[in-house]
Amino acid sequence: AVDAGKMFEDAMAFREKVKFDGYPVFPSPISVRGYNIDEINKVLGLEAREPDRIDKIYNSVKRVQHIAFHKWDKSGHPILIDCAGKANVKQLVAKYRELTPPGQDIAQVSIDLHTHQNIVGSHLVRFQDKSKGEAYGRRITTATVIMDCKNLGFGHLFGEAVEILKKSWAVDAQYFPEGMHRMFVVNCPGMIMFAYNLFKGMIDKRTQDKVVFCNEKDTPAVLRRAIPEDCIPEFLGGTCKCEGGCVYNTEDTEESTAADEDNSDIKTEEIIEIGRAS
Length: 278
Prior knowledge:
By secondary structure, this protein is an alpha/beta fold.
């Protein structure tokens, strides 16, 4: 049985460890599109953030991992966009390894960046709730996620990257539960359900029920039902064209995508069997 008291104590200890409540996160190295950073800091009573180790991590991986907070949905929830299909996972793992001190777990670099991302998202939720919740007629307590799977292939299921991802998601489950309003998994290729079966065991049932899958043809219409068209990037079927790109380096990237990855060490039969066993 889950010990709710222990979970609460662990969560509070974690918040203290990362200085969650008063943590200055803006400006963040992760793109935050559509928001006035000075206004956010004023409303939330935060000091302006000074560059630190997180900037070094993000600047090292931003050409091979593409994430951004981008505006909000029709209910005011902040949106996180993760262009998973454009990630070069082998280069990403190599960069994590370069940043990892001797004797430490390589996953900790990913966890530190992911934790910063979660805190940024949590503060954006607080800002939206305080500044716009009344206008929307409801409390805003969660965020919407768009995972763009265009170009996602078996090459992304690189063993070490999967293990790192599992450890980062474990932090979500333990310390940032119930933070997601809905996840749109868009531009899904045929193999996406196999990949989903690899990970769904780590995701609680309530979260699974919030996930919406759609293929490339249906992606624009599905997103427009929940998100204003001018809050959807053009590459996802909307009208938004942020200066500098809605998500860094997704429009014209020199980095390889799944089509360029070496898939020779990925056995399709193994992926199918794992999916069936989940």
